[in-house]
Amino acid sequence: MLAYAARRIALMIPTLLGVALITFFMLRVVPGDIVEVKMRSDGGYVTQELLASERARLGLDRPLVTQFGDWMQGLVTLDLGTSMWTGRPVAEEIGVRIGLTVQVALMAAVIAVLIAVPLGTISALFRDTWIDYVARIFTIAGLAVPSFWLGMLIILGLLTVFHWSPPVTYTPFFESPLKNISQLIWPALAVGYRYAAVVARMVRSSIIEVMKEDYIRTARAKGVFERMVVARHAMRNALLPAITVIGLEFAFLIGGLVVTEQVFNLNGIGRLFVEAVSRSDFILVQALVMLLAVVFVSMNLIVDMLYGVLDPRVRHG
Amino acid sequence: MITALSALDVGQDTEARDAALPLLAVENLTVEFTTASGTLRAVDGVSWSVRPGETLALVGESGCGKSVTALSVMRLLARPAGRVTGGRILFGGRDLLALPESEMRALRGRDIAMIFQEPMTSLNPVLTIGMQLAEPLIIHLGMSEAQARVRSVELLGMVGIPDAERRLRQYPHQFSGGMRQRVMIAIGLACDPKLIIADEPTTALDVTIQAQILELMKDLSRRLGITLVLITHNLGIVARYADQLAVMYAGRVVEEGPADRVFRAPRHPYTVRLMRSVPRLDQARGGALETIEGLPPNLMDPPSGCRFAPRCTARIPVCDSDPALRPVGDARRAACHRAEEMPGAVPLTAARPAAAAPALAAEVTPLLQVRGLSKHFAVPGRGLFGKMATVRAAEEVSFSIGRGETLGLVGESGCGKTTVGRLVLRLEEPTRGEILFDGKDIAKASAAEMRAMRTRIQVIFQDPYSSLNPRMTVGATIREPLTYRLNMATAEAHDRAASLLRQVGLPPEMAERYPHQMSGGQRQRVGIARALAMEPDFIVCDEAVSALDVSVQGQIINLLAELQAELGVAYLFIAHDLAVVRHLSQRVVVMYLGRVMEVADRDELYAAPLHPYTQALLDSAPVPDPVKERARAPRALRGELPSPLAPPSGCVFRTRCPKAIRECAEIIPPLREIRPGHLAACIRI
């Protein structure tokens, strides 16, 4: 198991290297020049000399390969560079915002799992009854409704029905947990709904499949109580494919927060991403892409490790 | 006289009657399934009963309703598709169908246990064996976990699993198929049930393991006084283990009675024909196998009269009316108007002369010659830098096949027989050795040469369900090579496909059907037609009849023999069933763990097997004759098949060999000619 984990972590390196290569060169190919954007935005006259000197200051005049090499060297020493726009270290830009994003994502994940597992299970066990139909309408709606629109509905709903709007300024959790949660629960709900819907559908189909397995018949033939058949014999097998979805969706969620953060006026990673792209802040964008890539491959690894814990065939294979 | 009966006498009388009262009686049971195309009555008015301590065998071919009946007893039919629509199931006087679910649940695993066919899928893969074994003990007997563990160790000991303490902590995938079935038996025995229903408990297992499991079940049920309902299609098993026998056909019981008497003189033409169509090891190989022509009726729309009448050769006008299951002689019942005239009234099929085995002319060059063929598979080792392990799937295999000849290749799972078949087809690259086909080495042929050769070498696969493309009509499947390899015009290809279908005994109209619209036997005929399309010289038949029912199996074997006599095609006939191989082959190769154990002409091999493994294989397969079977001592081969990753040193068979001595661990026995044309690899001969 440990050896397997080590091998998997080692295999992450070429994947991440590939992501780095593609990101770096694609960013250089797409149109948009931060120096132009930055200098001309003030409206003043800018000389070619000024542009060139600014490029030189940012290191953009050197060959691409050298730039890439510098970036790689930075990554290895955990130095993400400095934002070309604000001039602050990228690590700092990300650091002040990541807590908020991760917290919203985690809350959404918890909400999703809490809704999805019981909902999917009940839906499967009462397959093709009205309970199942209601559950399926709920999940289909979750897939169909965009989270930012749901977010706007939530804000409007809170305002018109309860005459209450969530706090506008971000309060860190450890300062005032109540205030913090009362602000972040709404975006978490908005993105968690879709998340719950995806997972619930997976849980449902997987429970339906598992309930047809021979070992479920064996369990019943042993005289096991039906609720134990579900809880002990079916659930652990059925949750294996669900875990894959939970993990991958979590990684998607970090990216999916881009729009929702705008709606809820949250200064998180998503917003930073949007800003960085619109300013052609290559250094920041590529750092953020690498961050997301690391989240993705790590989630994959965690999912596979969980498989090992839950499925002895993987553990011994 | 009547007044002379004392109260005491009455009491004794009732007691005696109680003892003979059935433990389980299925009365007039009807089960229906709702399917997309209508309602299917899978079980139609079935009655049978089993008395305490007896073993009842429920026999019949697939789809006859035997498993459905058993699942109905447990009330475990797949809901909501299947439901019992009539009848009673009396267990110890109580009607199980009328019990509330909570009482039924309390009965399952406590009083009635069930063992299923597929040991590989019947245990929960993510729970330990110990947990799965302790479950019924804790639920039904209220044991604590510690008590349950003690009892579990005892149970594993009873079913012959050594090292029980450690084994309880393991998971199902760490057990072999045979071992898993032992665990299933242990679970069944856990609460000392009164009745065990075993649904094809050994069908998925190798023949030597089958013998072990059945002997164990018989021994335990006798010792613990457990009543056994054994569902099987294997008449040999019935002959050896059953006291009572109920034969089912198309959702009904057609014959019932004490097993020995039913075997001696069956009273229903289906039973008569079924018994005649089994290829037997204990009788001289006659001509063509007896078969039951035709197919069982479609249960969506069963015939109005006797359901067997359309296939019956003893049919008379009265058979248009439905015969009732009626008493025929002592303790026997049969559902046939002519039961009293059976079995004499069923004419013996004029034994066609055996598809004349071509004389084994000493040919200069055989069609196929395999010399020193080996195939090693590399499997990744464990850990980060684990060493690659090697599985020697086939090692130093040599044989030859003449034109128009059949070579049988026999062995249990993992013996390498399928690998050899794939190597001959060059679906795998050999590690070593040569495969000379008509003098040319297949193993070294270039892609172009191979393409040319492939038209001359064809294959028939085991599974007629998955080896045909479900999206293509069978006509299109057969025409594909005709159009693309032989460049036939469309019209010509259609004609050829039609004649091929006729040749394999199917009406040419079937070309328009899709595989799912056909029965297993018909699909296998399509597989044969497809193989014949290229007019090959040689066909690899990989377990070509194993998935088929006995009566259909006979039809396909006869067809293969006829085609061989007609077209002079040679077969490599790969199978695990010695009786089937015997029927077709001129020469037989026996393999074990990748190595050839024995090679001999058919009659020589079956009459005087030399290698202890061949002897064990022949011994393990029960023959459909109760007299012979009961007289025979249990001779199950001990032990499990060793892991192919770590085969025993020296002779690979020595760990299970009754004749093994110390030297067997040291020398790999060479295959040597012990009698003219009879080779064996054993130093003890």
From TrEMBL, chain A:
Keywords: Cell membrane, Membrane, Transmembrane, Transmembrane helix, Transport. It comes from the Bacteria. The keyword Transport applies. Residues 98-307 form the ABC transmembrane type-1 domain. One of its GO terms (cellular component) is plasma membrane. Gene3D superfamilies: MetI-like. The chain crosses the membrane at residues 9-30, 104-126, 138-164, 184-203, 238-259, 282-303. Belongs to the binding-protein-dependent transport system permease family. This is Peptide/nickel transport system permease protein. It comes from Humitalea rosea.
From TrEMBL, chain B:
It holds the Pfam family ABC_tran. SMART domains: AAA. Belongs to the ABC transporter superfamily. GO terms for biological process: peptide transport; transmembrane transport. It comes from the Bacteria. It is a peripheral membrane protein. PROSITE patterns: ABC_TRANSPORTER_1 (PS00211), ABC_TRANSPORTER_2 (PS50893). This is Peptide/nickel transport system ATP-binding protein. It comes from Humitalea rosea. SUPFAM superfamilies: P-loop containing nucleoside triphosphate hydrolases. Residues 24-275, 368-618 form the ABC transporter domain. It is found in: Cell inner membrane. One of its GO terms (molecular function) is ATP binding.
